[in-house]
């Protein structure tokens, strides 16, 4: 996540033509294709990490908080995952329970709230930047949330193979970086490839929940999710397919910034068939 209010274009100027712009860009690939037909995603959805790993956040996690941290084998980059590694939820949480994955968890506002309200569920917070991951780990420790684990990783690599098929009860992506400039749209996390991988990881009846305050990105999310043959819109007849606000999501810093800037919050909810 990045501070969306630092972007000069607030997105409202492109809102009326959001759907037309997507259609003009050409057809969106089907997200329901077989996994082997999809090449590994080459463009990352996040900016440089090195400048953010400073001060207290650059240090290793203290031993008393180690239980909250997932330390996977790494690939060539610091945020990458080694080929063949698969997240073992039963081992990580030392219990079997439905798994909730939040991608781009930031400082943990949403995932910690959800974990506190749902102690019977396991929660994996995925964040690429150490400061946010560190705050989430620290708060999980302070609040004694034994059902939270934190993974620093490229989310595309995680969904692209490190989540076992049918292993996830719900996957949340709340207010991802909108990459508002047209030349940066290829960096947006939620695209047809991503949705296809999420569908593979979700259990039957599992839920994909999305939220954004960026109009064009919201329509892109709706288009690619609706194009996935393995997902169905939980709100097909409601206001163009938009979902009602998910009650399990607290009002986070990013949502407040979007509202303060006059942007509309769009929620989506799709269910694995």
Automatic annotation (TrEMBL):
Highest taxon, organism lineage: Bacteria
Keyword annotations: Methyltransferase, S-adenosyl-L-methionine, Transferase, tRNA processing
Location of the region described as Disordered in the Swiss-Prot/TrEMBL record: 1-36
Catalytic activity: guanosine(46) in tRNA + S-adenosyl-L-methionine = N(7)-methylguanosine(46) in tRNA + S-adenosyl-L-homocysteine
Binding annotation for substrate: 181, 213, 252-255
EC number(s) on file: 2.1.1.33
A single GO cellular-component term on record: tRNA methyltransferase complex
Binding site for S-adenosyl-L-methionine: 102, 127, 154, 177
Pathway: tRNA modification; N(7)-methylguanine-tRNA biosynthesis
GO molecular function, one term: tRNA (guanine(46)-N7)-methyltransferase activity
Statement: the UniProt record of this protein carries the keyword Iron: no
Biased composition (Polar residues): 1-10
Pfam families registered for this protein in UniProt: Methyltransf_4 (PF02390)
Positions with biased composition (Low complexity): 16-32
Enzyme class: transferase
Residue stretches spanning the membrane: none
Matches recorded under PANTHER family: 3-DEOXY-D-MANNO-OCTULOSONIC-ACID TRANSFERASE/TRNA GUANINE-N 7 - -METHYLTRANSFERASE, PENTACOTRIPEPTIDE-REPEAT REGION OF PRORP DOMAIN-CONTAINING PROTEIN
Similarity comment text for this entry: Belongs to the class I-like SAM-binding methyltransferase superfamily. TrmB family.
Biological role stated in the UniProt entry: Catalyzes the formation of N(7)-methylguanine at position 46 (m7G46) in tRNA.
Protein name according to UniProt: tRNA (guanine-N(7)-)-methyltransferase
Organism in which the protein naturally occurs: Kineosphaera limosa NBRC 100340
